[in-house]
Every structure is written in C-alpha cells, then in structure tokens.
Amino acid sequence: MKPTLRPRLAALAIAAACAGTAHAQSSLTIYGIMDAGVMAADTGARTEYELATGNQAGTRLGFRGIEDLGGGLRATFNLEMGIANDTGALLTFGEAAGTVFGRKSVVGLQGGFGELYLGRDYTPAWWTIFRTDRFRFGLPGTTATSSGVIVTRANNGIFYATPAFGGFRGRLAYTFGAEVAQPDEQGRLTAASLEYAAGKLFVAAAVQRRSDLRPGSTTETADMREGGAGLEYDFGSFTLSTGFWQANPVTATAGAVDKSRAFWLGASTKVGVGQVQVQVTRTRQDVVGRPEQGHALTAGIAYVHPLSKRTSLYAGYGTVRNDANARLALNTGTVRVGGTVFDADPRALLVGVRHDF
C-alpha cells in the first residue's frame, strides 16, 4: 500500500502554523522586590526607631510584556509601582496622591535601531549616577541625595537608547512638560548621555536641562541645568566607583539649594560569600539666604550577605556631617533622615532582608 499524503500534509500545516505564530510570540512577566528592615535613625535632634521599607532597593511590583513582531522588531511595555511594604501604601515619588505606577509607565519598540519608549521613565542622569553609585541608590551612603541630582524620572516623555557601537551607547530624553501649565515650555526636559562599557570598565556622562517657572513670574521660564560623569571599574578582587555631579536649580526660596556640586568615591570587596561596600561623598551647596557656601560629607558602609540568588540579608550604617550652612539629608534607600536643620548631623543604622521575585 502506498503511503497516504494526508499525514504529511497535516504535519506541514502544523509546522507552518507554528512558524507563523513564532513571529507573534508574546510574554508577560510579573516581577518585584520586597525589602524591609529595622532602622535606628538620629536626625540630629532625636533618635527614632522604625520599620523601614526599600532600604537596599525600593520595594516594587512590576509588569513587563514583550511581543515579537518579526524581523527583529519587538513591542514592549513596562508598568512598575513603588510600595511601602511596612504599610502597603503606594509610593508616588513626588507625583500626585493616588499615582499607581510612579516608578515607571512606558510602552515602546525595540529593534536594531535601539529602544524607544513613551511615557514615564528614568532620565539619562539617573542611569549615569545609578551605575556609578557603589550602593546603587540604596542603603546609607548612597549618592541618591548627596549627588544633588534633580530629575531622575520624567513624565510625558520620549526616551531613546541607541544600540551599542563598539562599547558606546547613547541615551536621549525629551518631555512635553506638564502639558497644562502656562507658559507652554514650563517643565520641558531635554537630556542626553553617553556610556562606554567594555569588559570591566563602565564610563558615562550626562547633561539635562528643564524649563522651570522663573521665581516671581507667571509667564517667564529659566533653565535648570545639571550634569556630570561617573566611572566604575571591576579589578576582580574589588570594584571601584567614582563620579561627580553639579546642578543649578531655578529657585529664590529662602533655605533652598541654589547650586550644588558633589564628588563621590566608593569601593566594594567580597568577604566570604558576602560583600562589603563603602562610599564617601563630598557635597558643596549654595543655599538661598545663607551667608556662605555649605559643605557636607556623607559616608556609608554596608555588608550584604546572600542567602540565595533571590534573597539576601544586609546591614548598613551611614552619616552626614553638615557645617553651619548645610542641611543635607541622609538617604537610606526610600527613607530620608534629617535634612531640616542646618549644622545637624543625621545618621542611621539598619538591618534588613531583601527578596526578589
């Protein structure tokens, strides 16, 4: 008996269907971080004890989707909310109360041209400082506050990252501002950065400009400007990070920072299965209404002990030494300690646990 063609045709049809759906493959990832610890914080006036959240990394819940459109083109979205897991409340990162996805809210395309996103995302400044901060914006001693960076996330924006060319990669951001404010350019941000990554070396530089309402005017704007650079190198036995940042806000409010400049130096080394991190940041500030320039020295040390690939324990201590014309707060991740009284020296000690999922 001759073999029938029907089984072969059926197999070919199934294979063709599978090939067709391969171009339309999609995935949805639910991910997050839960991070909490016990903190003893001295604001310079009194000592407080609390259950702090987001110490090593901000507690979050995120949704990431990708659809393969074929030809190397992919559609993607990313929604990410901040959570205070000590109370379950949303963290809005300066946005209006009730903002759900305050960490990130973007939709875009990825391909050989790079990555293009629309919505609320991290700015080029954030990428530059985050990658050269030894504490990665977490634990006492991070540069999240001491660097003086002004805009780390932006709304109503277009965000573009080029593909890597010989280790180089660029980032661009443009935002439409508040879109309802007058004058029209109020809040508009233009930003750019250039990164170089090769082997154990990472170098980046960024500049940002935002149109803010000029003090005392309802129709004129002035440019907030900030920029800087950073470097990180992995020597094998230890890693070294360094960078600087300067910012020039638009303000005339008494007690507000008018200009700032910061320089930081950090290092980490393995101790057993864990890692010890240290960092020092020197910050200079011009404060509106103060007779002289203020100076602050931020220092931090931490130990991170992994229990698994997803779970780790940590302990950290940090302090800020402010002079008579400075009142820089100590950032411990999501929480800020002090920062309200000139010449006060906030400090904090904390221990906690982090779990990634």
TrEMBL record:
Pfam families: Porin_4. Residues 1-24 form the signal peptide. CDD domains: gram_neg_porins. InterPro entries: Gram-neg_bact_OMP, Gram_neg_porin_domain, Porin_dom_sf, Porin_Gram-ve, Porin_Neis. One of its GO terms (biological process) is monoatomic ion transmembrane transport. It is found in: Cell outer membrane. Keywords: Cell outer membrane, Ion transport, Membrane, Porin, Signal, Transmembrane, Transmembrane beta strand, Transport. The keyword Membrane applies. GO terms for molecular function: porin activity. It is a multi-pass membrane protein. It comes from the Bacteria. One of its GO terms (cellular component) is pore complex. Residues 11-324 form the Porin domain. Homotrimer. This is Porin. It comes from Ramlibacter cellulosilyticus.
